[in-house]
């Protein structure tokens, strides 16, 4: 267990999500804290974690725009999916790109007057990008094909054949719209994006909710995203462990 946890935390994406979960819990604690002294201490820790997480996404705009280009050039996807997905990655790339220029103000190294307005505009693009991502999930869910249901005659014939050969009728399986995509993953992404809307929405004043609810939404989205990262990190370590074991032999 500790080895798996260490492997997860030593992964950049895993560490970022761990910090985000900690940030969400601190945000809830600060919002609900009544003691001024304790609230000040937790607020300081909250700000430090928030700043540290910025370095993980400092150049993430490069990946976003690369994804936008790859999606736009993907001729295998339908036109609607390509357009919405390209818009999603382009908008998120703009958010990360604009936010990058405000990091010196956040660190206290500079006091540019345009720093705060730039962050507000950046968070607007975050909202736009999340909105596009939500639309993309809904589009993919709506266009997700499923295996045709066999008619009565086919089922009867298969059952008769199964009685003779001791086989069973194959279960109905859902066919994904694209490799690695299924309804469960799309629903999870839909929940993640919806929860994430609370963070930039409150920062720019478009959503009026208590910070405790923002922290709760951040916790849910971070935990859901962390499960996928955990699974990928642990799966990637299997070949490495196999090679290490083989090397010892």
UniProtKB/TrEMBL annotation:
Subcellular location, principal: membrane
Give the UniProt subcellular location, in the record's own words.
Peroxisome membrane
Segments carrying the region annotation (Disordered) are 161-181
Give GO BP annotations, semicolon-separated.
peroxisome fission
Mark the transmembrane ranges. 92-113, 125-144
An example Gene Ontology cellular component term from the record?
Answer: peroxisomal membrane
Flavoprotein: is it a keyword of this entry? no
List the keywords (alphabetical).
Membrane, Peroxisome, Peroxisome biogenesis, Transmembrane, Transmembrane helix
- From start to end residue, where is composition biased (Basic and acidic residues)? 161-175
The protein in question is named: PEX11 domain protein
């Amino acid at each position: 267990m500790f080895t798996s946890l260490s492997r997860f935390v030593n992964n950049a994406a895993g560490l970022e999500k761990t910090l985000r979960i900690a940030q969400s819990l601190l945000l809830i604690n600060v919002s609900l804290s009544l003691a001024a002294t304790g609230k000040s201490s937790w607020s300081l820790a909250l700000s430090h974690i928030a700043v540290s997480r910025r370095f993980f996404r400092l150049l993430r705009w490069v990946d976003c725009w690369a994804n936008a280009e790859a999606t736009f050039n993907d001729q295998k996807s339908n036109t609607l999916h390509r357009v919405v997905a390209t818009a999603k990655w382009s908008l998120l790339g703009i958010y990360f790109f604009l936010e990058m220029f405000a990091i010196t103000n956040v660190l206290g190294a500079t006091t540019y007057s345009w720093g705060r307005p730039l962050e507000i505009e950046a968070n607007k693009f975050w909202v736009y990008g999340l909105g596009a991502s939500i639309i993309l999930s809904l589009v993919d869910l709506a266009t997700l094909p499923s295996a045709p249901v066999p008619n009565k005659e086919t089922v009867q014939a298969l059952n008769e054949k199964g009685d003779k050969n001791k086989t069973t009728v194959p279960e109905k399986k859902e066919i994904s719209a694209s490799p690695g995509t299924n309804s469960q993953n799309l629903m999870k992404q839909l929940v993640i994006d919806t929860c994430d809307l609370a963070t930039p929405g409150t920062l720019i004043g478009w959503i009026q909710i208590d910070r405790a609810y923002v922290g709760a939404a951040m916790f849910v989205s971070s935990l859901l995203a962390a499960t996928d990262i955990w699974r990928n990190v642990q799966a990637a370590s299997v070949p490495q462990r196999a090679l290490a074991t083989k090397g010892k032999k």
